[in-house]
Amino acid sequence: MTDTPQADVSARQSILDRIRTKQVHSAPLPTIDFQRVQSFDDPLDRFAQSLVSVGGQAHMVDSVNDVKPIMDQIPVFRDASQIVSLVPECIRGTVDTAAIHDPHTLSDVDWTIARGEFLVAENGSIWVDGNTLPHRVLLFIAQYLAIVVPKSEIVATMHHAYQRIEGFDGRFGIFVSGPSKTADIEQSLVLGAHGCRKLQVFIVDQM
């Protein structure tokens, strides 16, 4: 009588062993002619328009001191009690992330105020260096997210963005653009289904 489970294991192992003997060579990356890559007359305006189109909101401010007065006008910020601020010169947080060892305990965070490295005009995204985050989940677990970025740090397209982060050796990095969204259920767009419900971006002239 054939031992079917053992035969299945043997066949599976045989397939895996054959796969390991195959060498798959990666295709070389294409050469980008940056002289032909799209540019914008007003990259900051294009960024703001792109961000709005994906559900976010951009604020042009002169200094970090202008951030909190704008945030204070947002009801869900005024009523918030659990605020993680990674940009204390703008807003003081109420949660001490240095005392947090289990990221699951951050599930009740109302706002995360994060620092962005640069903007991408093409699609309204912001590059966030994970080394600035004590817990990477802070970008995704908070009800609301605000990102503060220097006005001078902007590139036109994702081609330029990837050129800029070439050689990045941080433990984590991500492009963030707008609140989370899904349209899987009845093809109806829902914002904040599995991440922040709203994204506020502060583009600061002097930091």
* Helix proportion: 10-25%
Global Rg = 22 Å
Q: Write out the CATH superfamily name.
A: NagB/RpiA/CoA transferase-like
Query: What is the ordering of alpha helices and beta strands?
Result: HHEHHEEEEHEEHEEEE
| Count of individual beta strands | 11
What is the count of DSSP helices, taking H or I runs of 4+ residues? 6
Identify the overall geometry: globular
Oligomer: single chain
Distance between the termini: 76 Å
CATH topology: Rossmann fold
Q: Could you name the ranges where pLDDT drops below 50 across 5 or more consecutive residues? A: none
Beta-strand content: 15-25%
CATH architecture: 3-Layer(aba) Sandwich
The secondary-structure class comes to alpha/beta
Mean pLDDT: 90
**CATH top level class name:** Alpha Beta
Quickly count the domains: 1
Secondary structure: elements and pairs:
Elements lengths: L3 H17 L22 H11 L3 E7 L3 H5 L3 H4 L4 E3 L25 E5 L2 E3 L4 E5 L8 H4 L2 E7 L3 E2 L2 H7 L8 E4 L4 E2 L7 E2 L7 E8 L1
Parallel strand pairs: 1-11, 2-3, 3-6, 4-7, 6-11
Antiparallel strand pairs: 4-5, 5-8, 9-10
Provide tags for this entry.
207 residues; alpha/beta; Rossmann fold; 5-stranded parallel sheet; globular
What does this structure look like?
With 207 residues, the chain is α/β, with parallel strands linked by helices. The protein has one domain (37-206): Rossmann fold (3-Layer(aba) Sandwich), CATH 3.40.50.10420. 23% of the residues lie in helices and 23% in strands. It contains six helices and eleven strands. It has helices at residues 4-20, 43-53, 67-71, 75-78, 138-141, 158-164, and strands at 57-63, 83-85, 111-115, 118-120, 125-129, 144-150, 154-155, 173-176, 181-182, 190-191, 199-206. A five-stranded parallel β-sheet has the order 1-11-6-3-2. Strands 7-4-5-8 form a four-stranded mixed β-sheet. Strand 9 (181-182) and strand 10 form a beta hairpin. The longest helix has 17 residues, at 4-20.
